[in-house]
Each structure stands twice: as structure tokens, then as C-alpha cells.
Amino acid sequence: MPSRLKDITEQRVESLKELRSQGIDPYPHTYHPSHSIKAAIALYRQGGEGASAAISLAGRILARRSMGKMSFLDIHGEGEKIQLCFRRDTVGQEKYNLLKKFDIGDFIGAEGTLFQTRTGELTLEASDFTMLSKSLHPLPEKWHGLADIEIRYRQRYLDLICNEEVKRIFTLRSKIVTAIRSFLDDREFIEVETPVFQSRAGGALARPFITYHHALGEEFYLRIALELYLKRLVIGGFDRVYEIGRTFRNEGISVKHNPEFTLLECYQAYSDYFDMMELVEGMFFHIAREVLGSPRITYGDRIIDLTPPWQRITLRDAIKSHCGIDFEDYPDAASLGSRMVAEGMEVDAGKGRGKLIDDLTSTFVEPYLTEPTFLLDYPVEISPLAKRKRGNDRLVERFEGFIAGIEIANAFTELNDPIDQRERFLQQARERVGDEEVEVADEDFLQAMEYGMPPTGGLGIGIDRAVMLLTDQQSIRDVILFPQLKRKDD
Question: CA-CA distance, 159 to 80, in Å (whole number)?
């Protein structure tokens, strides 16, 4: 700790000792303000008899000023600010002297009446006050803001104290999740919870985290998707089901990826991927109007309209349009890889045809999908849980939704043929030996499918990315309260 900060901390510890020596508890058990700061502001604006009555408020001190026999403190709480005024003649000399023991960052409770200063600032004229919590460290200088990214992510509490905009983003995140639940609940979906520890890491192509269950004496995986358990519930008779839960993938970190993230998955019986497209359009339209007040959002320097219907284009046509390669002309990885090399691309010889098509998509297509767009019909090789496309067995009925170049949705007409499902798992295992990102055959899930699953549409939406989009944030870390960071030595 730099010496100046150390000196300040030591001074505050001394103040703490002096308060205790005077019989004052700097950390009382409770305090019950009569109003929140927001409610007090509303009370005064409404006027009437209640506006002149004595009230009590509480908050964190973020500014202070002294003028002889008067002192002023600015306190904040729940995104609102109010000024406290202390007159020596009102609170008494002894109590007034006690104000010297209050520092920026401390919590204070104050009783008094509201008035407006000549400059128009709403103020509580205090008749009494109480120390509620002593801060032992100085806060970052608020007028400079908290700009250090390392501190902002590691000490998010300081970020929230110093940056009201950050607090606003996370308040919006909560409202967005509430709006999603409301949208699905209104459509008779049932919210459920499924296991985080799983004996098989299934439902997606991803490297899992592994843990050990001592009571059972077995290794388990942290789930990489919610899919397989939710489908079991569809099989069991829940026709519309969803879960919003933490999911874990032991992969890279970037502005769009965090190893621990929040995922929405929902499944609707007697539906297909066209129904899921309508669900996604309707959901984002609903969220934007409910939370932001308009279906038109700002992301970066663009205005994007989320009003349905969204653009729909097949993956094949999108790739052809952007780089001239028609993957249907190349039936295997070798021929497609050769064409990609001829176009000047680097190609990993170990990748299958489906992965190469995925590379073409991420390189040439995704960055240019600014307007809300559904990419349709993906290769069967990288979609083992999706139903084959009607009229083309090499493709599946799958779409991914994109806005501003960000993937925000992934959905299938779900495969419900247990024989085809088993063969897909086995085929993928044969073709991708040693690949950590491979769909593992889950015998319990396959057995459940053998009891019969109705035609079903399934959808996954990354909540963090959706919040990024709807709050105009360029990094996923800015919408996750406590993102993963490399451990820092003590």
C-alpha cells in the first residue's frame, strides 16, 4: 500500500478507536430510516403536509464541505443523492465536533426536515445523526471516476460506488432477466432447475470443467448446456419448459466469452425451428420495449430496430454471398479445405467438414450481420442434436440469431428419433477421436428418448451477450458482476 494511503488508513483506524473510547459503536446492529433517498426526493416534490415532517435517511458519504458553524455532507443510496446540512446551534457543540470523525466512504444515518437551498439543492437539515459504518480505506477519487480496468473487475464494489453508469447497467440486467421470465411465463412455459454436476458433459460441443464428488467417489462435469435434462422433462410431459442458469465451458476468454456464463434454454413441444424464430423475435421485441422503452436500440454507432420480422438467410447463401464458396460443392473436408487454401485461408488439417464451414461462417459472415438476422440450416456434422432438414439430409434444421455481429441465439428443430440420435453420437465419436469438444453419448438420455419425445423446438440464448447488446456494452466482462480473472498474488 502506498504510504499516503497507508497514512489515511491509519488515521481512520485512530478515529475508530476514539469513537469506541467515547462509547460510540461505529458498527451498530441496525438502523431503520423512515424513507429511502429516492422516496424522500419524491415526498418533497409532491409537497403537502408530509414534506415538512421530520424524517430519517441513511446512505454513504461521498462528499463533504464545512463553513464555520455549518457542515454539509452528500450521501448516496440506490443511485440517488441528497445533501445533509448540520448546524452547530441545532445539533449542539459536542455532537457537531463528532462530525470530524466522519470520512468520505462512511455510512451515516440522519434525522431532520427537508428544505431547498437557494441554489435549488434538496437538503435534509439534521437534528441528529448516527455513525452506521466506518470505512477504513479511502475511496477512489470520484471526480476522476474509477478507470483502472483491473480494479474495476477485481473490486467491483468500488466500481459500483464510483460509477453510477455501472450500477445502471446491472440494474438493467436484472430487469432484462425479469422481462424474459415474464415473456415465457405469459406463454405458459414452466421454469425449472436441473443439475449443475453431471456425469456426462452433453448438450453442446465444448470442453468441460471436471470436479470430484467425494461422497459418490466419482468425477463429475460442470454442465456445458442445459439441453439434455430439459428434454427429459419434455419426454416426461412438460410441454413448455425453460431454465435460466449458470453454465461452464473450459475455453478461452474474450470480449464475447467468459468460462462461466448465464444461459437460457427453453423447449416447446409440437414446435420446430420456425416457431423458435418467432419466439426469439417476440422475446427481444418485448424486452426492448419493456425495459428500454423502444424496440430501437443503440449499439456502438448504430441504431438497430428489433421489430419483427427479422432477416432470414440460409448459411449456404450467406457464405456464398460473402466469400464465393458454395460448401455444397465440396462433399468432404479435404475438398473444402483445398478450396479454402486456394482462397488464401489457413486450414487446420485435423478439422472436419462441419468445423471448416463453421470457420467460414465466423470469418466471412458473422462480423457483417448487423441487423437482426437468422442464419438457417447448418451441417449435420456440427449439430448432432438437431433434426435433419426436410429435403436435405446433409443439413439440419438449426438457426443462429445475430445482432450487431454478436451471436445471441441458437435453436433447433430437435432430433427426436432415438436410433438416429445414437448413430449421430457414435459417428461423431469415430470422426473426432481425441477432440475435447465432442458430444458424448449419454445412455440415460438415449434411453429416455426411446420412450418417445414429441416433435419439439429448442432454443438457447446467452443472457450475458443479450445484456451486452441491450445495454450497449462492448465487453462481456462489463455485464458480469464478477468475471473470471487470473489469481493475483497476495
Answer: 16
